Structures
1.
Amino acid sequence: MFIPFEKMPKNGRVWIYQANRELSLKESAFAIQESESFCEQWAAHGHQLNCSCQLTHNRFLVLAVDESIELPSGCSIDSSVHLVRHLEKSLGIDFFDRTNIPFLKDGDVFIEPLPDIRTKIQQGTITSETLTFNNLVPTISAFENSWMVPAKDTWLKKYFS
């Protein structure tokens, strides 16, 4: 059952999928519509999941589940991956390329390929204070409080010594 994201419990589990490019307004509307429809029927072992979704920065799809009601199963998690694959195919985007590192500067998200990170730091494009995204946060609370962090507080800190 779809629950508005802001009404989900803070300990709800999240999965964050990062698109390789910004979605247009039309594409964003499509992605949200498809994701909300998916949430309306998302189930584990025949039990409806209380879940939500949102698209942030027209680039990050966030799926959330209230695990206190029902735990998602392997099959239900696989079905969510099928949703994301459907969105990829429909929109001509890639949500699974982990070699593109997202940053936020002046309110805009920009992506740097992993091999270019060191050069971008040397050029000053990325500083120790440049915000980056930790797409591996496990809960809504962590998403709200520590999804965006300064580069110096991530694995990137090794480049700032």
2.
Amino acid sequence: MPRTEMAQITMEVLETNLPLIDDDDDYWVTQRVSRGVSGPDGETPTVIVETVPLPFKARAKYYRDGMPVVVLSVRRTSPEVLSPRAKIQNYANLVQAEFEVKDKNPDGWPILLDMNGNLCEGPGSNFFIVKDGVVVTPREQFVLAGISRSTTIELAQELGIETREADIDLYDAYTTDEAFVTSTSFCICPVSSINGSNIGDSVMPGPLTSRLLDAYSGLVGIDISGQYLSRL
């Protein structure tokens, strides 16, 4: 399917569904492409375009209280098995992590370890810590480097904040000054605790996270925290 046709179909799906939500709501818009069914002339891809409302009400508490992160027994798929850098829908171990976190903390957000025991990523989300004024995130080899992750790194660099890709173990996380996750729906969301251990001084968001969140809000033209907090 040509790119222009995919874009046209995507906009048609979005515009058809926009009347179903309020003016201050938003949709996820997702494009899924599979290899499709094989035939005598080869494979014809199957294309799905869908919209789903963002769960503002369910997640609003994270912007008030911070997100309690839970690190689980489920490990992220190793690059030797299947590269996590590929944008595919093989999220079986991430779904397992979501099931496990609900048993431990129904309000928790799962972040998985990689096979080396370093913090990796969560369902559709990247993980960051802030230590001594430096923003650190796991290396691309072990995560899907999302657009929100890249945007946050670019914003940090524009603000003169040092950024680094490095291995982050649990000790690093427990002793960090601040932590946050990024994703399409969260943009930037502050983390309050990891496995029940409070992060920093428990002020949400922390000062550097707040700077990045304000910059992100300015970039997209929406008060990200305010959009969530208005649902409380």
